[in-house]
Specification:
The protein is an alpha/beta fold and about 350 residues long. It has helices spanning about 55-65, 90-95, 110, 120-130, 135-150, 155, 165-180, 195-215, 225-230, 250-255, 260-265, 335-345; strands at about 15-25, 30-40, 45-50, 70-80, 85, 100-105, 185-190, 215-220, 235-240, 240-250, 315-320, 325.
Length: about 350
C-alpha cells in the first residue's frame, strides 16, 4: 500500500503527493520538505508532530500557498483539495478558497492580527471577502462568532484592538476568523503554544467541538504529543523534512515503531514515574543546507542505527494495520534488522 492510500477511504478531502518544498539560499534551492505524501479524510483530525525545524509549518504553508515569495517554492508533487490540484492555482484562484474552504490558525496570534484594526473589522473582512452580505450583517455574524468561541462581552470586544486582549482571547479571535466561512479543512499551526495549561485545554476542547459541529477536517501541527493524544485520530511524525511514521493515534502511542518516535515518547514526563532527569534525544536536526541526500536522516542520532542506514534511504512500509514507518529495522529487504537492533549495533 502506498503512503497516499493510507487508511484509504472514499474521496479524501485533501491529498498530498510527493510534496517537495524548497527555499532559495545564496542562489540555490534547498528542500525543507522532501517527498511528503498523506491523505486527510473528511471530518478527520490528523496530528503532525516533530521537533522544531522538521518541516511541519513549511508543509502547512505549502498547502495554503503562503510561502514567502521569491524565497519559498513548491518544487514538486501535488496538493489536491476536493479533486483539484491547488498547487497549480493562481493567487487569484487561491484567494477564492483560502479563508473560505481552507483556513489556517497561525502559531502566534499577536503577529497574525493587525494591530491597527479592531477585532470586528478583521473578522468582517474575512466574511465580506467571500460572501455577498452587508456590513451590518457581517458585524452581527462577527459578534455571533466571538460568542461561539467563548468570548464574553462580544459586542464590546469587536470594538477593541488585539493588544487589549489576553493571549488566550487573541487565539479565540483567530479561531473565530478561521471558521467565519465554515471551511471544510482547518490547519492549526501550534494553536496552543505560549498559552497556559488551563487555556490550552479550553482551546483544544473548542477546536474539537467546532470540528464535530461543522463536520470539518483538521490538520493539527504541534510538537506536543499530549495535545495529539487528546483530540487526533491519526498521527504523522516528521523528521528533517520527511515522514518517518504514520499511524492511528492509539497504535502510535501503544506501539511506536520508528526509533525517533520511540525516543519522543520516552521524553514525555510521566506522573507515575519519579526521575531526576528526563530522557533526551542527542544531537540536532540537520540544517536544510546540510541535509543528507541518501540514507536515513536520523541515522547519526539513532541508538539502533546500522551501517546500511547511512547508504540506504528507507521508504514508508506497512508494519501493522493503519501503521507505517520508514525504517530499515522494519523493511522486509533487511531481514537482519531486528537482530541487529537487539544486539545494539550503532553508528558512531
Amino acid at each position: 500500500m502506498s503512503a497516499n492510500n493510507f487508511t484509504a477511504k472514499k474521496a479524501p478531502i485533501l491529498q498530498v503527493k510527493n510534496l517537495q518544498t524548497g527555499f532559495k539560499i545564496d542562489g540555490d534551492y534547498y528542500n525543507a520538505v522532501e517527498g511528503v505524501s498523506f491523505d486527510v479524510d473528511r471530518k478527520q483530525i490528523v496530528g503532525v508532530v516533530g521537533e522544531s525545524g522538521c518541516g511541519k509549518s513549511v508543509m502547512s504553508l505549502s498547502i495554503m500557498q503562503l510561502l514567502p515569495q521569491g524565497i519559498g517554492k513548491i518544487r514538486g508533487g501535488e496538493i489536491t483539495f476536493e479533486g483539484e490540484n491547488i498547487s497549480e492555482f493562481s493567487d487569484k484562484k487561491m484567494n477564492q478558497i483560502r479563508g473560505k474552504d481552507i483556513s489556517m490558525i497561525f502559531q502566534e496570534p499577536m503577529t497574525s492580527l493587525n494591530p491597527v484594526f479592531t477585532i470586528g473589522y478583521q473578522i468582517e473582512e474575512v466574511i465580506l471577502n467571500h460572501e455577498k452580505i452587508s456590513k451590518k450583517e457581517a458585524r452581527l455574524r462577527s459578534v455571533a462568532l466571538l460568542k461561539s468561541v467563548g468570548i464574553p462581552r462580544a459586542e464590546k470586544i469587536v470594538e477593541e484592538y488585539p493588544h487589549q486582549l489576553s493571549g488566550g482571547m487573541r487565539q479565540r479571535v483567530m479561531i473565530a476568523m478561521a471558521i467565519a466561512c465554515q471551511p471544510k479543512l482547518l490547519i492549526a499551526d501550534e494553536p496552543t503554544t505560549a498559552l497556559d495549561v488551563t487555556v490550552q485545554a479550553q482551546i483544544l476542547e473548542l477546536l474539537k467541538g467546532i470540528q464535530e459541529s461543522n463536520d470539518m477536517a483538521i490538520i493539527l501541527i504541534t510538537h506536543d504529543l499530549g495535545v495529539v493524544a487528546e483530540i487526533c485520530d491519526e498521527v504523522i511524525v516528521m523528521y528533517a523534512g520527511k515522514i518517518v511514521e504514520r499511524a492511528s493515534v492509539d497504535e502510535l502511542f501503544n506501539n511506536p515503531k520508528h526509533p525517533y518516535t520511540d525516543l519522543l515518547m520516552k521524553a514525555i514526563p510521566k506522573m507515575t514515574e519519579d526521575v531526576e532527569k528526563l530522557a533526551t534525544i542527542e544531537g540536532l536536526v540537520p540544517s536544510v543546507i546540510n541535509m543528507p541526500q541518501v540514507g536515513c536522516r536520523f541515522a547519526n542520532r539513532c541508538p539502533a542505527a546500522m551501517p546500511e542506514c547511512l547508504t540506504v534511504t528507507p521508504m514508508l512500509n506497512d508494519v501493522a494495520s493503519n501503521h507505517q514507518t520508514a525504517c530499515l529495522l522494519y523493511d522486509s529487504s533487511w531481514p537482519e534488522g531486528e537482530t541487529r537492533q537487539r544486539e545494539g549495533a550503532t553508528i558512531q
